[in-house]
Amino acid sequence: MDSRHDVGLFGPGSVTWKLHKEPILLLGGLRSLYLQALHPRAVAGVAQNSDYRSDPWGRLTRTSDYVGTVIYGSTAEVEAVGRRVRRIHARLSAVDPRTGERFRIDDPELLRWVHVTEVESFLTTACRAGVKLTGAEVDAYYTEQRRAAEVVGLDPATVPGTAAETAAYYAAIQPELGLTRDSAETGLFLTVPPVPDDWGSRAVRLGLTLGPTRWAYLGIAATAFGLLPPWARRMYGGLGWPTTDLTAALSVRSMRLLLGAVLATVPSRYRSASMRQAALTRIGLAA
To answer: Are 177 and 38 in contact (CB under 8 A)?
Structure first.
């Protein structure tokens, strides 16, 4: 395919491109990490194989680059990053701290959990921040994201493709979830991480324009936590009250409005992620 017309997995007419132009989705990524940590094997796999404690912001950058490539990359770029991720996963394993059993990181159950929590978190965060999507668009986003699931090696047919299927998946998997030591330590780390000296430059790379202070980050983390489903908050020992949902919704809407106001004051080249701009340029559309 001529790369000048290669839209990759999705393209400008997709719900995926419509949703992922929203900077507030970075908060959705943080929400998904809180959720993912509630799966005992998933969080054990991260704890035993990842450098997130020693280089959390580097890992965030790499994860952001991966997601950006899957969303906006050309077919060749997506295939290349998929091969790399599958190759890494294939050689990793971890030990279940509850049973002592060794398991593979590329276990489809774990890959599916990570995929669903990420996709659902992006969508939920955007909608609660005020992004307008119809029910049909919501289901279309889930269906489109089955292509992203295939990149990591999942059979798309085994991945929820609608909002109803996602809700059913969460209901079915909840008995397997819970707070372990790894979960608690990860949750605390996500809430109070070290802030690097070069946060400003990393923030620009991730599509932000202002580096939050430590106190501001605590507010961001609290909002991400508040956006969790009530059952997830209860697993962390938090409150499942409707007032928590309302407070989080008001907070994330305010954050989206603030981001929009800030981005309106900066040069156009900083108003959207560099990968989105590159994709639009590649297919002949103005960024």
So the answer is: yes
Rounded to the nearest 5°, which phi and psi values hold at 104? Answer: -85, 140
CA nearest 25: which of 59, 55, 64?
Answer: 64
What are the structure tokens assigned to 111, written together?
Answer: 């890959």
Rounded to 5 degrees, φ, ψ at 166 are -70, -45
Query: What pLDDT digit, counting tens, does each position of 215-239 carry?
Result: 678 889 999 999 999 999 999 998 7
* Alpha carbon distance 83, 89 (integer Å): 10
Alpha carbon distances (Å) from 211 to 29, 193, 207, 222: 17, 14, 11, 17
Separation CA 195–CA 148 (nearest Å): 31
Residues above pLDDT 70, as percent of the chain = 88
End-to-end CA distance of the chain: 22
Radius of gyration of the chain, Cα coordinates, nearest whole angstrom: 18
